[in-house]
Amino acid sequence: MAIIKTLLGKTPKFGKDCYLSETSAIIGDVVMGDNCSVWFSAVIRGDVNTIRIGNNTNIQDCACIHATFETGPTFIGNDVSIGHNATVHACRIKDGALIGMGATLLDGCEIGEQAVVAAGALVLSGTKIGKGELWAGVPAKFVKMAKEGQAKSFADHYTTYKQWYKE
């Protein structure tokens, strides 16, 4: 069973049909929607501020989701995929976005609907990525428009994978 920890009187809440791997940790003020998955060694730490996660979203192995004390909650939409080893900190990710493996999102950035942040990218504080844009690099810069449905396909795959582990 995942580590689910109440902190400062706040207990994580989960929607229906979620999968939480045995080595994941979800702490404090976290609310997750339906049909989500949190994979091995991922940490969602709602200790210093609010973290809200929509439906059908996956947080892959070793990802870290956190916020900033008093000033920076984290909001993750529906159908979002957060890749292995990604760091998501005090930002907003809109529906259908894909955050690549090892990407880092810093405070106050906003990732648009169906946008793609490439593996290893560093999205600087306050950066606004538009709907359907693909950004890459250190620091991340606009590269091109993502293919239609590119990000959503990852969320769909992880819905299938989580069922394998729940059986």
Order of helices and strands: EEEEEEEEEEEEEEEEEEEEH
Number of strand segments: 20
**Which segments are poorly predicted (pLDDT under 50) over 5 or more consecutive residues?**
none
Shape: globular
Distance between the termini: 15 Å
Strand content: 35-45%
Helix/strand/pairing class, anyone?
mainly beta
* Largest sheet data: 12 strands, parallel
With helices defined by DSSP (H or I, 4 residues minimum), what is the helix count? Answer: 1
Q: On the 0-100 scale, what is the average pLDDT?
A: 95
Radius of gyration: 14 Å
Helical content, roughly?
Answer: 10-25%
Characterize the structure shown:
With about 170 residues, the protein is mostly beta strands. About 45% of the residues are buried. Helix content is about 10%, strand content about 40%. It has one helix spanning about 150-165; strands spanning about 5, 15, 20, 25-30, 35-40, 45-55, 60, 65, 75, 80, 85-90, 90-95, 100, 105, 110, 115, 120-125, 130, 135, 140-145.
